[in-house]
Design brief:
two-stranded antiparallel sheet, 12 helices, alpha+beta
């Protein structure tokens, strides 16, 4: 079957929520069919898994209220303020880094959107919002373009507080980001990031995603994260080598060990565990980076953002006018289905955004407008589809 959703002010929100609800109902139905149930409550009554899911949804709403932000707490404004960073007297707050990271994200957003618009011939729609407690965002989305079916690039600045388990979901490697807080105590945090996903029309042109972010918690604990990755439907080895080599060159400039570490991290992170395959053909991914001077990591993050256009857009320009068949288009839509599965089930940014009451349209901006699921589909042996499936199941080395 095919699912389609459109980026309209009301329709997209409703459709996105319906999609999420469909996944929840699917999970509940599966659990019920398997005879799954929750442990007995205080009155000894065993609740079906569906009831547990509803209770968890209510708890999530309560959590958003406690955090000080929620899905509907943003206020739209006509023009972006000079900065979304508020003056902050929290202990250990690095105001200078916060401001410079936001400034760099806004600069990169302008440059990337300009380059994409020039290639496509269509303009991005911009939504700007703020929140009463500080922060806000600038989302830009190009829909129904000449080259891109959907391309989004979103800046977010977030102030709030979260329970320690939610904070853990935003990090990896068991990093302790709640240092100095008693068990169960909420942790005030700051986050700034720029994220993007580009979905071209032509199945020969790859999808691309990037996200670069900076976090602080009250008390001066800080870290950087990010990465860029590519998701083709058809394999052109020279294209993937170009993308990886661009980022390997950036990594080598800053630390000769970066690329091998971050490439492996991307292969592992972007694995769709229930499928036994990767979402795409990787790139780099890093998180919890605070092992050296923050200026050094900031410089690395900046150069990674500056490499988005040269790493990716030449590949789209190369393939945007390639001929293709209906069968090849359907394969692209099936790979987009895998993209949706990863983003809604495993993606750390999606989980973090939903747990902390982020703006729904921005959180789900990464989803393609159309995707396809075919029951028990297997590519024909020796076909181009089977060739790239082998690369999805067995990560390769692409850069020299």
């Amino acid at each position: 079957f095919i699912l389609a959703w459109r980026a309209s002010p009301a329709g997209s929100t409703i459709a996105s929520l319906l999609l999420m609800l469909s996944f929840a109902v699917l999970g509940a139905s599966t659990a019920l069919l398997a005879g799954a149930s929750a442990p007995a409550g205080a009155n000894g009554v065993v609740r079906p898994r569906a009831a547990v899911l509803l209770a968890e949804a209510a708890a999530t709403t309560d959590e958003q209220k406690a955090s000080g932000i929620s899905w509907d707490s943003h206020q739209y404004v006509d023009q972006a303020p000079e900065s979304l960073i508020r003056d902050d007297d929290l202990q250990g707050a690095n105001q200078d880094m916060r401001r410079r990271f936001e400034e760099n994200c806004r600069r990169a957003q302008n440059a990337i959107c300009k380059a994409v618009s020039e290639l496509d011939g269509a303009e991005f729609r911009e939504d700007v919002w703020t929140r009463p407690g500080g922060g806000g965002g600038i989302s830009r989305v190009l829909c129904n373009g000449n080259v891109f079916e959907k391309a989004g690039c979103s800046l977010s600045v977030v102030y709030g507080s979260m329970p320690q388990d939610a904070l853990q979901s935003a990090t990896s490697r068991g990093a302790d980001r709640a240092k100095g807080y008693a068990p169960g105590e909420r942790v005030p945090f700051f986050a700034c990031g720029l994220s993007s996903v580009m979905h071209p029309r032509n199945p020969m042109a790859p999808t691309m995603h990037f996200n670069y972010r900076y976090f602080e918690t009250d008390g001066g604990v800080w870290w950087f994260g990010g990465g860029s990755d590519i998701t083709p439907a058809y394999l052109f080895e020279e294209d993937i080598a170009h993308f990886h080599q661009t980022y390997k060159d950036v990594c080598d400039t800053h630390d000769p060990e970066y690329y091998a570490r971050f490439k492996k991290w991307a292969d592992e992170y972007f694995t769709i565990k229930h499928r036994g395959e990767t979402r795409g053909l990787g790139g780099i991914f890093f998180d919890d980076q605070n092992d050296r001077d923050p200026e050094a990591i900031f410089a690395f993050s900046k150069e990674c953002l500056d490499s988005v256009v040269p790493a990716y857009l030449p590949l789209v320009a190369k393939h945007k006018d390639d001929s293709f068949t209906q069968q090849q288009k359907e394969w692209q839509l099936m790979r987009r289905g895998r993209y949706v599965e990863f983003n809604l089930v495993y993606d750390r940014g999606t989980v973090f955004g939903l747990k902390t009451g982020g703006r729904i349209e921005s959180i789900l901006m990464s989803l393609p407008e159309t995707a396809r699921w075919e029951y028990s589909h297997e590519p024909a042996a020796g076909s181009p589809e089977a060739e790239i499936m082998d690369a999805f199941k067995t990560p390769r080395e692409w850069a020299k």
